[in-house]
Amino acid sequence: AVGFGAPAKATTLLYQFGLMQKEHLAYLVDDSPLKQHRYSPGLHLPVLPTSALYQEPTALKRGDAVLVLAWNFAPSILKQHAELERRGVEFIVPMPLPAGTGAGRAA
Description:
Blueprint: E1 2-4, H1 8-16, E2 28-29, E3 38-39, E4 46-48, E5 65-68, H2 74-80, H3 82-86, E6 90-93, E7 99-100
Parallel strand pairs: 1-2, 1-5, 2-4, 5-6
Antiparallel strand pairs: 3-4, 6-7
């Protein structure tokens, strides 16, 4: 899985829910050039441009998941990256109420 967005609140959420291991998230992506090519606090996850979701070697494929850490922008993120959902990538929006997209979603 990867994280979408690198806001300060993401670090709080990751620690609160015990997602502090690097095996939970491979990397983060963010639209802000000021955050790209840096590392997240605490976990030191690389923050890449959103193009990393589509380009090898970091491209996502069917069965991968994106944890939307900038949940206040979830509607626009989901709209902008609908192609990934069509390819079988699931988006997980943890706040304000947990929700997911794709095959794993409850009916």
